[in-house]
Amino acid sequence: MKRRNAMDAGIPKVRSDRIKKLLPKRKKGLLRIVFSRAGLAALLILLQLGMIYSIFDLATDYYKWFSASISVFAVLMVFYLFASDMDAKAKLTWLLFITLVPVPGAILLLFTQKNIGHRAVKKRLADLTEETKHKLPQDESLLKDESLCASGSSALCRYLNQSGCFPIFENTEVKYFPLGEEKFSAVLGELRKAHRFIFLEYFIIDEGYMWGSILNILAEKAKQGVEVRVMYDGMCEISTLSADYPKRLARLGIKCKPFSPIYPFLSTHYNYRDHRKILVIDGKVGFTGGVNLADEYINRAYRYGHWKDTAIMLKGEAVQSFTLMFLQMWNLTERQPDWDEYLAQTVKRRCDGYVMPYCDSPLDGFKTGENVYLDIINRAKDYVHIMTPYLILDNELESALQFAAQRGVDVKLILPGIPDKKAVYALSKSHYRFLLGAGVKVYEYTPGFVHAKVFVSDREKAVVGTINLDYRSLYHHFECAAYIYGSDCVDDIERDFQQTIAKCRRVTFETIRRESIITKATGSVMRIAAPLM
Question: At 343, phi and psi to the nearest 5?
Answer without folding.
Answer: -75, -20
